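Good morning,

Both structures are done.
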Amino acid sequence: MSQRHGQKRRKADPARRVAYTALLAVETRGSYANLALADQLRAAGMTGRDAAFATELVDGTSRGTGTWDRIVAAASGRDPAKLQPGVRVILRMAAHQILAMRVPTRAAVASSVDLAGQVIGERVTGLVNAVSRRISTHSLEEWASKIGGDKNADVLALRTLHPIWIVKAFQDRLGTDEVEAALLADNDPPVPTLVVRPGLADRQELLVDGGTATPYSPWGVVRLGNPADLDVIRQGRAGVQDEGSQLVVLALLRAAESHGCYGQWLDLCAGPGGKAALLASVAAQHNSSLTAIEIHQHRAELVEKALAPIPGDHRVLTADGTNPPLPAQSCDVVLADVPCSGLGSLRRRPESRWRRTPADIRELTQLQRRLLTSAVDLTKSGGVIGYVTCSPHRDETLNVIDFAQQDFPVDLLDAPAMIPEVPDIDDGSGTIQLWPHRHGTDGMFCALFRKRDS
């Protein structure tokens, strides 16, 4: 029988076919998993249980990429990098189904073989069948112990589906007793969180259809479903924003209020506009104005859209925050929400943990220091500066703060004291560190400074 006829006989499960196509785009074109999946679900018209299954398959396969590859290597005796991309993706999917989902082994193996036969060809079905069956001979815990050996950090990395360098970075901030809980929290997808724009909407408008108030932020609501179903979201009087992002803005605003810093406010790295919209809403209530700077034009347009419904004299500049077109010492409050590794939001982008490297951290920290330098230069004497990252990595957080205290005319404020209602955010450094496993938020970091009087 010809390969062509063999392919016609096989019928791959539609949800797995959708997941495979999305994952292949992630693997070969560098696509974001959530966007690639959304495209495929839309093209297939898939909803309900099939869409939910495809989503779990894409997210889980992406989260575990490095772990699944090491298990595939051990089960096959081959370097996964030398397999053709489609085979590599199907074997990762098989590993996730067998080791992390409640899919019976027989069904996971058979469906993987059928998928391989349909999308690649009969010539690879024997390999997929054999390797999938070998994967099923051990649990994830057993594979981690077998591959990681006596290296505790490596075993933990394999079990929690993280690169070992991220495990060590988290361990550095949390210690050995708490690090596993933090890593496992990265594998739990977040529930959508909404935020009202103060002065434009009341939180009660979001507390519909099962919405619940966020435990710490006075503006947030956790709500399942499509945010765009709500009029208040469509009108721009509220938006989508993690509670952690709301809390670091709240801390900055309270610090500004405690020091009487009103007038000109600045968001130095504003895209896509969530924090800028929150700042602008509060600024409008205090006869202050916001300038938002964003280096990328398409993100600057998103900021403009976010600020459009908000009253007041606000403006968006498409410019480089390290060399902004603003006079020195012209701002009363500056937010430097700097580009970072995103290690605090790994639960949102399941593939990102395998795309970042320690080299990225080294490059980003140089940019972060230049942006903080710019923020200090732009701040008036007595003004307040907020340095924010969505990362707990020491090099992007505490080491940058040490650099600032040594080189700049600033005093570190007690940031945790600005949001005393939030527990377990202070490690003694005077800075805020949020964690998914402690607070149910992204892993936001915030340090607050006051610029010394001339």
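Second structure follows.
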Amino acid sequence: MKKVTVMTEGTIWKQILFFSIPLILGNLFQQLYNTVDSIIVGNYIGNEALAAVGSSGAVINLLISFCIGASAGAGVVISQFYGAQKLEGVHKAVHTTVAIAIVAGIILSVFGVLTTPVLLRWMGTPQEVFPEAVIYLQVFFGGIVFSVIYNMCAGILNAVGNSRRSLVYLIIAATSNIFLDLLFVVVFHMGIVGVALATDISQLLSCIFILAFLMKSKEDYHVNFREVRFYTGYLSRIVRLGLPTGLQNIVISLSNVIVQTSVNSFGSIAMAGFAAYIKVDGFNILPVLSFGMAATTFTGQNVGAGKYDRVKKGAVVSVVMGIIYAVVIGALLLLFAPQVIGVFTQDQKVVEYGVYVTKYFCPFYWLLSCL
């Protein structure tokens, strides 16, 4: 029995919403990686370590922007072939996607390890934070290849409507990350290295699970490693469709690097408070991104099936769902900002700074201030 969702028939809002739920849960569990790292670091190691972990996010997002774009492009190509029932196209697009993931992951891992000190200096990272930030990022980038492969493979499953399988593996990985964080930091006292190593091992587990599933699957998206290569025409098509998303992510990531550089100039306390806010903000934005991912699969399948009227209606439904969620979660965050930021640290100065940043970046705060 196929555990996939064909989105070319049926009620549009139900299909997008129900398909989004596993994506939302999966993204939330994935966000747990760095969030749990930050909570344990802030409570068991200290503010400097929390600042180091928090400031790494801007660098990580900047370097993986292309991979995110390539994943989006691959999802569009695969979903279009799947919607049109062109099985050979699905087969070649899937194997090209896996090849991109392996090559891009290795390049990103090596590049990240080698350039981390330079990037952190460019960002004006304070000296009291710099050594731990370098160690954390270098160990993290040592295992980034596993994360890239997992996310690209999850994109394959999402493109054919199977968003539940990747959720299972993310739950396993997130749970193991929490356990390993506590083991390495609280029991073995490995400090910042233990936090990064726990993340790498968890990402390795999710990578192994999803590759094993794709290799054992009997569905049209089955992966045979002997056939993993860059198929003529498919690589260029994936890159061409993913390039706009990649460029958009690069622009956003660069702006975040600039903001992080500005925050770094205020010292480790400000960096720690900002780090806590960034983790909370990640949870806020992920459901909206999940609606977008669901809309991508919905659009790709319906374009492949030639049902352009459903594509237009799906776009409107996705935007409305995103707006409703943003309004509700923005209001809740304003009400409970002190309690949420307080989870990351007991230092009152860090909490106060985190709450201030939360209000500053929330448009509802400025709206309410004008009333």
